[in-house]
Amino acid sequence: MDIIWRDSADNGVYEEARVGRVFNHRRPSRFPQAVVKARSEEEIVQAVKLAAERKCRVAVRSGGHSWAAWSVRDDSILIDLGNYKNMEVDADNQVARVTPSMTGRELNSFLIKEHGMMFPGGHCPDVGLGGFLLQGGMGWNCRNWGWACERVLGLDVVTADGNLIHCNATQNPDLYWAARGAGPGFPGVVTKFHLSLIPYPEKGFRSSGYMYPISMYGKAFDWVLSITASFDNDTEIAVVGQYPEGEDEMHLFILFVVMKNTPEEAEAALRPAQETRPDGAAKEWFCVEDSLEGQYKNQESANPEKHRYCAENAYIKNDADVPSVLEEAFTTLPHKKAFSLWYPMNPCSRRKLPDMALSMQSDHYFALYTVWETESDDDRCKAWVKNVMKKVERHSVGAYLGDSDFQVRRTKFWADDNARRLMDIRRKWDPNGRICGYLDQGDQSGTQGLTNAHEWKL
User: Which family does it belong to (predicted)?
Assistant: First the structure.
């Protein structure tokens, strides 16, 4: 077992182990006692038992993409799963068994090439499946195909006392319930996910895009809102406020990505947008051949490595005037690499969810991804996010765990009954708070977890 101890390792080696795989270069000032680079389930069990012997907590890192760096905790044993990568595919039953540090791109690259299947993982290609699935998984075409965690058939878990168990609808069902939406508060270390796969629509993977000058913000946003609820069920829709590469003027970019079996079906699905779009686009394309790998490359460009990030989000009330509520967020970006996102969730948001921890959603998901390069810009960029969210959050019903930082702002992440049940399950399976859980201000939440209440201030 590869262990890097803070008090004995070379400082450079320790720092690389502590934050080298943290995507956000706005590094935290928190210091684990040790980092265990686990390569197997057996080493994960050993690491949990080591933490118990030393009477310290356990933190877990799968992909390192948490904006708030939840894996980096004071006086913990950090189990880094970056070297623990494994997948098995049962093609006949369309099931994959995957370790948490496998990324969506790694999994789908293999599935598409070898089996003509895919899994609706994270949009950003290097997001690890572990954190993504535990917080719910707002993956490809979530508004129609549903949450990625709904495709978790079961999972293997090392409990807080170091036992390896399996969880599904009949075995340890309370942990299975919690795993689909608990986020970083899940009271165990997942070693493997058992996932239901879907066919990959290679021949009918197409996209249309419309880039409008920001002066047309209201007209363009009203248009996409008017067509979204009844749009084709295999089409993902996103609205992005951004600076196009090499340009000094902001634009509103509206993207339709369709996943059909044939090019003809794809064109028929995308045509209603083409025929109703407002005039005045600075750039547009209709039904061009695309691919999941092509979309990964676009996401990779929008989320560059070795940059500083501040993310925030909210589910906007269904009856809100969405363009008005989000206008400042979409038209006043503080940096050319920053962007704002609106992602429609209807019809997924209008159906009854399975019985699982995940329970917070609305028709309108909004997120800010403020991206910059130098520490000297920290205060300005964070202040912009804070100012925008002070106004937006008053029109929200809650937020998504994945784009949140509990140290900065608390809000609702679950329905009230689900939140109470989740915190009870956490205390049942981890009564001593061995697993670090939710990183709130001062890292004080412990076994109590999050309060799941609107704070209405920042």
Answer: Belongs to the oxygen-dependent FAD-linked oxidoreductase family.
* Domain co-membership, 234 together with 355: yes
- Polymer length of the chain: 458
d(CA 282, CA 284): 7
Domain that holds residue 305: 204-403
Q: How much is the pLDDT for 457? A: 53
| Secondary structure string (H, E, C) spanning 245-301 | CCCCCCEEEEEEEEEECCHHHHHHHHHHHHHHCCCCCCEEEEEEECCHHHHHHHHHH
Q: What is the CATH number of the domain that holds 247?
A: 3.40.462.20
Q: What is the pLDDT of residue 166?
A: 98
DSSP for 413-435, written as a single string: -S-HHHHHHHHHHHHHH-TT--B
> pLDDT tens digits for 322-348?
999 999 999 999 999 999 999 999 999
Query: pLDDT (tens digit, 9 = 90+) per residue, 416-437?
Result: 999 999 999 999 999 999 999 9
User: Are 210 and 260 within one domain?
Assistant: yes
DSSP state of 175: H
